[in-house]
Amino acid sequence: MTDDRSPAVAEDPERLRERALDALTTARDRTALLTSCVDEHELVAQHSPLMSPLVWDLAHIGNQEELWLLRGVAGREAMRPEIDGLYDAFEHPRSERPSLPLLAPGEARRYAAEVRGRALDVLEKAPFEGEDRLTEAGFAFGMIAQHEQQHDETMLITHQLRRGPQALTAPDPGPVEPYRGPSEVLVPGGPFTMGTSTEPWALDNERPAHERLVAPFHIDTVPVTNGAYLAFVEDGGYTDERWWTPQGWHHVREHGLVAPLYWRHEGGQWLRRRFGVTEVVPPDEPVLHVCWYEADAYARWAGRRLPTEAEWEKAARHDPASGRSRRYPWGDADPGPEHANLGQRHLRPAPAGSYPAGASPLGVRQLIGDVWEWTSSDLAPYPGFAAFPYKEYSEVFFGPEHKVLRGGSFAVDAVACRGTFRNWDYPIRRQIFSGFRTARDA
């Protein structure tokens, strides 16, 4: 069994330093966009009890950067130790954060900017070689860039939840020819390398690389579309207990679910709200804002199932010709605009079948970007897992309460999305940019 090493990750320290600077700058530019397009009242308001006020995310980003880059890497004293508790994500649930004495928007911006200025000085001098795992290959800087981008995605979710006029704009994905290829792809059985031991900024739950044996299976070539999901809705899928797990059926009845989040039926057609705009549900886009229970129920209705996490990763990374696991479906090169819909370049998924240049060797499309894809798997550690640099990133979430999502979405930046990247959430979550594709045994 080959490992997951590839030329794309065997970079010299100075090149990694440049990548870190670019990743940190890209993340901060996005943070500025997300927090400057609304007024201060909108920044301090809580638009949903599921989410923090935007101003909390802004200062939390700065606080985590200070904690890991200034105190952790450079060993400096805390700039504002009195605010650490306010921006500890485990100390205060999101619903309580508006009642905390948070930094005001202007003060939060100044704090984050001052931290960033000092952090760039640290980046310039930090050793990227040696035995310190925090600085080796620039890990701490990559981790912080990923952390900021993850909160940018969270803030984009808040923008989708907020009521009021449109605050964000972006061009739509370019027109594509309707996809007319095969509906599913056969993934051969056998072993493959799952996870990574060589990706320099991979997080602890992606490690280590290990062999996984997967039986042959079929997987959808493209994500399930709105049009396909609508057939489930109109066939009474939400009122037929046969398709739901007991927990899912209870959730549907308790909360009166009848369609994906933000959908409504009006004037004989299905409409959706998207970032302050109401529009007809586009049938050719991947379905969005469905929870795990909905994805699982649709798969049962269709006579299929959700793929396991291992099946998803094998479909995304395994190259049958070489036997090697690649960084991405298309190979080892970093994502480009021809490969995937990432980085908030668009504010919607691209039509199903887009990005043929991003297909896997077997022809599976859109495995990276567009929508996070629910899998059937619970979040669990890989064999040989070791928490680093802190248990709260992954270890505290292991167990049956959280389901794994893979592949990223249009709201995810490339620095926080790769073939090994693992996301997770409760099976009831719908505000996230989640969709799915189905599978079946061969």
How would you describe this structure to a colleague?
- The chain is α+β, with helices and mostly antiparallel strands and 442 residues long.
- It has two domains: 7-161, dinb family like domain (Four Helix Bundle (Hemerythrin (Met), subunit A), Up-down Bundle); 177-442, paralog of FGE (formylglycine-generating enzyme), CATH 3.90.1580.10.
- The chain contains nine helices and twelve strands.
- It has helices spanning 13-36, 40-44, 54-73, 105-125, 139-161, 226-234, 246-255, 292-301, 309-317; strands at 184-187, 190-194, 210-214, 217-220, 263-266, 269-274, 277-280, 372-379, 399-406, 423-425, 434-435, 439-441.
- The strands form four sheets. A four-stranded mixed beta sheet has the order 10-9-8-11. A three-stranded antiparallel beta sheet has the order 1-4-12, covered by helices on one side.
- The chain is globular, with a radius of gyration of 21 Å.
- Residues 5-9 have low confidence and may be disordered.
Spatial order of strands in the largest sheet: 10-9-8-11
In sequence order, what are the helices and strands, one letter per element? Answer: HHHHHEEEEHHEEEHHEEEEE
Please give the radius of gyration in angstroms: 21 Å
Tally of DSSP helical segments:
9
Main sheet makeup: 4 strands, mixed
Number of domain modules: 2
Please report which band the strand proportion falls in: under 5%, 5-15%, 15-25%, 25-35%, 35-45% or over 45%. 5-15%
**What is the global morphology?**
globular
CATH superfamily of the largest domain: paralog of FGE (formylglycine-generating enzyme)
Backbone structural class:
alpha+beta
CATH architecture label name of the largest domain? Alpha-Beta Complex
Q: CATH class of the largest domain, anyone?
A: Alpha Beta
Q: Please report the distance between the alpha carbons of the first and last residues.
A: 23 Å
Oligomeric state, counting identical vs distinct chains: single chain
Percent helix range: 25-40%
Work out the number of β strands: 12
